[in-house]
Design goal:
two-stranded antiparallel sheet, two-stranded antiparallel ribbon, mainly alpha, 277 residues
Length: 277
């Protein structure tokens, strides 16, 4: 774990600390932008569109993630609303995705471009960026999983928070009652699970991007695959938002996202068959 890479004293700015999470987030946006730019250029939409979509995704994503985080932690938000809003934590994926999607749709509404073509260019970029971003979570010891004795288990003694028995109990994970709260336990490195699965999705979409299909089909496929990935990994996560029995809020959103993706794919394939008749 390398939560902080280095600290510098800069003129006019003062002390500046570069965190591994911040670096990986920057690399995630940069890699996603490079893929998006290559795709918009290949599809004839121009590279400028990629830059505009990136700005829309960046602003909308941060705002959406913060709103989701504030609502999810409303008990703490009511006590210190400004602290929750301006804290360095709270970049929740599904909130960021919803906000980023709305930001990109706003950008596309102001540009003479086919939305189906644009969102197809976004699909592989999203999967690659998400996989890289999860590496940042791993390096700071955040978003890990439930305790495990398997070969994949990893301990996060300096995580955010540390993977101690007490913290895992607070997340609702099953922990041996004989273990003291300060005992550091090995857990599923679910950040790496998500990175691996997201990269697989990226390569699938990257291979299919040149396959003849109706515009928007590739994005629908990404919605379905990304929803399956998150739904499965959530079973291994240590989380305290299991409001629906053993299911988390993220899994509920994943179901909606999967249904939307399947609906898009089926509808567009049906439209393609009707047009071919």
């Amino acid at each position: 774990m390398f939560p902080e890479l280095f600290t510098l004293n800069l003129p006019l700015i003062g002390e500046f600390t570069l965190t591994s999470f911040g670096l990986l987030m920057a690399l995630a946006f940069l890699s996603g932008y490079m893929v998006l730019r290559a795709e918009t250029d290949r599809l004839g939409a121009g590279r400028d569109l990629a830059a505009d979509m990136l700005i829309g995704a960046l602003i909308g994503g941060i705002v959406g993630a913060k709103i989701y985080y504030v609502l999810l932690n409303w008990d703490r938000t009511a006590v210190d609303p400004l602290g929750m809003i301006f804290s360095r934590s709270g970049l929740v994926w599904y909130g960021g995705f919803i906000g980023g999607f709305l930001g990109v749709m706003w950008v596309l509404g102001r540009r003479p471009v086919v939305r189906g073509l644009a969102v197809d260019a976004v699909a592989p970029a999203l999967s690659l960026a998400y996989g890289i971003g999860r590496m940042g979570c791993f390096l700071v010891g955040d978003d890990y999983g439930r305790p495990t004795d398997s070969f994949a288990g990893m301990a996060f003694p300096n995580g955010l928070p540390p993977s101690t028995a007490g913290n895992l109990r607070r997340f609702g994970a099953e922990v041996d009652p004989a273990l003291p709260d300060i005992e550091v336990l090995a857990v599923h490195p679910t950040q790496l699970y998500e990175t691996g699965l997201s990269l697989i999705i990226f390569f699938i979409l990257w291979r299919l991007r040149r396959h003849p299909h109706v515009q928007g089909w590739l994005f629908g496929l990404w919605l379905a695959l990304a929803a399956i990935e998150r739904f499965v990994v959530e079973f291994f996560r240590a989380k305290d938002d299991r409001f629906l029995g053993s299911f988390t809020l993220a899994q509920a959103i994943s179901i909606v996202m999967f249904a939307a993706g399947v609906a898009v794919v089926v509808r567009l394939r049906r439209r393609a068959r009707e047009a071919a008749v």
